[in-house]
Design brief:
The chain is mainly alpha-helical. Helices cover 62% and strands 4% of the residues. The chain contains 19 helices and six strands. The strands form three sheets. A two-stranded antiparallel sheet has the order 1-2. A two-stranded antiparallel ribbon has the order 3-4. Helix 2 runs antiparallel to helix 8, helix 2 packs antiparallel against helix 11 and helix 3 packs antiparallel against helix 7.
């Protein structure tokens, strides 16, 4: 059974993804997430390009929300400007400075001729009210989105900061779409909602893919499977079908990998006990997320069936822990084997037939050992008064009528079991008596003339 289970796991894994292992699976996760990121970019571009039908490239668009967000992210420590420089991000500070310079240049262009004259008393417009072309804000947000998607643990600006900048630019674009009319606003809302959900997904799986080695990526992806399936479900939904199968195949391979203390030099020893333990430790939600999303028909059902096989084998193996009773061991071993086959086949009739054997045996044993029947067999039979003289006479002659440990009075070999002797006594009208050499014999009425002289 163990060999058959190992072969089934190996065959199924090869059908999912030939040669699957943690390293290959980690690389598959990285490729799958990269594909997801590219698909998100393409969809974003298509959705936001739909706005171009309603908003002109040079439509005035203010950047007040973006400017305020950059001010907050670059805020220093009041009264300690020198210390503040230690906690400011240089790249983010340069971005803020460049935006302010562009806004100031746009404000200069908006000033009427001679505005600098003291006689006109010109009040420059606040920078958060100064518009830039719609196309420039749109392009800035596209670049911020690329930075957000490509962020990893070595990036100068972390993902949470780029998310705030991206959200601020989206709000400014939303103001331009609202000013352009209801159709533009609806198209912007659709694109912005998609972008927000995709950004949340990347934020959720970022801790998995931002690792320095493929095997570490795989380990991060498959950690916490006992607690639930939220993390693995998000990851699997973010990858193409072929990448999901590689992950599922690698997990399936690892389920039955024996402990290091029992491994060979190649690490290829399979253990049905480890398979069952690891499968049982996996939460139902995680099991479903891993195996139902692979696109392989009936994969989860087949793996659950393998788990039942391993469970039956575990139960059956306990038979061989009994140091005695060879016939019982063989019988029980065969019974467990038949039960395992019946469960593996999934036939209710086959399972019922196998289960009927111990059930019937238990009922029969319970009946034959019931207190009522045992008392009936063990009670002594009361002899009638008419047979007492002959019984006394026979007992008196007993020492002279014994030969080789056998009592002539019982007509044969003594009983070794009092219950059996009780049954015989009731059927023959005799009395159960203990034999001097052990066991029991029956005392019957015997004529003196029948005794040897």
């Amino acid at each position: 059974q163990a060999k058959a289970l190992q072969q089934s796991v190996q065959d199924l894994s090869e059908r999912l993804a030939p040669g699957a292992n943690p390293t290959e699976a980690g690389e598959a996760i990285a490729r799958g997430v990269a594909t997801f990121r590219d698909n998100v970019r393409n969809t974003q571009q298509r959705l936001y390009n739909a706005l171009d039908r309603y908003i002109a490239p040079d439509a005035p668009t203010t950047a007040g929300t973006t400017l305020k967000t950059l001010d907050d992210l670059n805020a220093g420590i009041d009264g300690a400007e020198n210390l503040s420089s230690w906690f400011r991000n240089g790249k983010l500070a340069d971005l803020r400075k460049s935006l302010i310079e562009d806004l100031e240049a746009a404000r200069e262009k908006m000033a009427p001729p001679g505005a600098r004259s003291s006689m006109m008393n010109y009040q420059p417009q606040s920078l958060d009210k100064v518009p830039l072309p719609y196309e420039s804000i749109k392009k800035l947000r596209t670049l911020a989105g690329q930075e957000l998607a490509d962020t990893n643990f070595t990036s100068d600006i972390n993902r949470s900061v780029w998310s705030k900048v991206y959200a601020a630019l989206s709000d400014d674009l939303g103001g331009a779409a609202k000013a352009a009319g209801p159709q533009a606003e609806q198209a912007w809302s659709r694109a912005n909602t998609f972008t927000r959900l995709a950004s949340e997904r990347m934020e959720q799986i970022g801790s998995i893919i931002n690792k320095d080695a493929p095997e570490h990526v795989f380990k991060a992806a498959t950690s916490g499977l006992a607690d639930g399936g939220t993390q693995i479900r998000r990851l699997m939904k973010s990858m193409p079908l072929e990448n999901r199968r590689e992950v599922a195949a690698a997990v399936l391979q690892r389920l039955g990998r024996a402990k290091n203390s029992t491994q060979d030099e190649m690490g290829s020893v399979f253990s049905s006990e480890t398979f069952l333990t690891n499968l049982a430790a996996m939460s139902p939600a995680a099991r479903s997320a891993l195996f139902t999303s692979s696109g392989f028909p009936g994969l989860q059902q087949r793996i659950n069936q393998m788990g039942r096989m391993a469970s039956v084998r575990r139960e059956g193996s306990t038979v061989f822990a009994n140091p005695s009773g060879t016939a019982r061991l063989v019988g029980l071993g065969g019974w467990w084997l038949e039960l395992g086959k019946a469960i593996a086949s999934g036939s209710p009739l086959g399972i019922a037939k196998v289960m009927a054997v111990p059930t019937a045996s238990k009922l029969l044993a319970k009946a034959t050992t019931s207190p009522t029947l045992t008392r009936f067999a063990a009670d002594q039979t009361q002899a009638s008064g008419a047979m007492l003289p002959a019984a006394v006479n026979a007992v008196a002659q007993a020492p002279a009528v014994q030969s080789n440990g056998r009592a002539i009075l019982d007509g044969g070999k003594p009983f070794t079991n009092r219950v059996k002797a009780g049954f015989a006594a009731r059927s023959e009208g005799a009395v159960v008596m203990p034999h001097p050499n052990g066991g029991f014999y029956l005392l019957r009425p015997v004529e003196r003339s029948a005794l040897p002289q």
